[in-house]
Amino acid sequence: MKTHLILSLMMSAMSATFITHAQEIAKLTLPSKHKLEPSYNYVAPEAKKNKPESKAAVYLENFYPNAEIVNWRSLKNGNFCYFVQNDQSYAVSFDNNGNWVQTLRKYYPEFLSEDVKIRVEDAFPEYEIYYVNEFTSPGLEMPVYILQMKANQMYINLIVTKKS
Predict the structure, then answer these.
(1) Could you tell me the pLDDT band of residue 127, with boundaries at 50, 70 and 90?
(2) Helix %, strand %, coil % for the chain, to 5?
(3) Which of 97, 49, 46 has its CA nearest to residue 73?
(4) How far lies 120's CA from each of 28, 29, 132, in Å?
(5) CA geometry: angle at 12 spanning 92 and 100, to 5°?
(6) pLDDT digits (tens, 9 = 90+) for 137-149
(7) Per the CB 3.0–4.6 Å rule, which of 30, 59, 98, 131 could disulfide with 52?
(8) How far is CA 139 from the centre of its chain?
(9) Whole-number Cα distances in Å, 156 to 7, 15, 16, 19
(10) DSSP line for 100-153
(11) Tally of helices (H runs) and strands (E runs) in the chain
(12) First CA to last CA across the chain, in angstroms?
């Protein structure tokens, strides 16, 4: 019971954080009169003046060396960036001190680990996974997967957390 409550609270906190960042990403993808120029390097625009952004940029270079066109955005609680690496989309968040907070990785099912695929296919044999949202954070034992699945005209989002 305690584990379920903690997991529920953690998912609520992640949802609130994800919604904030998703809203920011949505704002960036909406058509506007002014197009923002993408940043072609890993360093946030303020990185030369402000140490936290440098720390975040170093994190990105270490963990995502093949990131293409990294776009940085500032929020009141820190910064986030989004980019593509190896045909997968990423949104990575950092706090005001430049510490990694969370990563949202979006990709097609061919990149999903076999053990997760097998677990889901065994439990939902009639459904097909068509898209994956993978959430990682320092406080999680393993990634949280939000699998977008379909069967005939029925669509569901399945949350896969830890190994059973």
Answers:
(1) very high
(2) 35, 35, 35
(3) 46
(4) 33, 32, 12
(5) 25
(6) 999 989 999 999 9
(7) 98
(8) 14
(9) 21, 17, 21, 19
(10) EEEEEEEE-GGGS-HHHHHHHHHH-TT-EEEEEEEEE-TT-SS-EEEEEEEETT
(11) 3, 7
(12) 16
- Show the tokens assigned to 62: 């270490």
Count the neighbouring beta carbons within 10 Å of the beta carbon of residue 57.
Answer: 21
Residue bearing tokens 């979006």: 106
Tokens coding 144: 């949280």
Distance CA(102)–CA(137), nearest Å, equals: 4
User: Distances in Å between the alpha carbon of 18 and those of 30, 90, 106, 153?
Assistant: 18, 13, 13, 28
In the numeric block, which tokens belong to residue 100? 């990694």
What share of the chain has pLDDT > 90, as a percent? 61
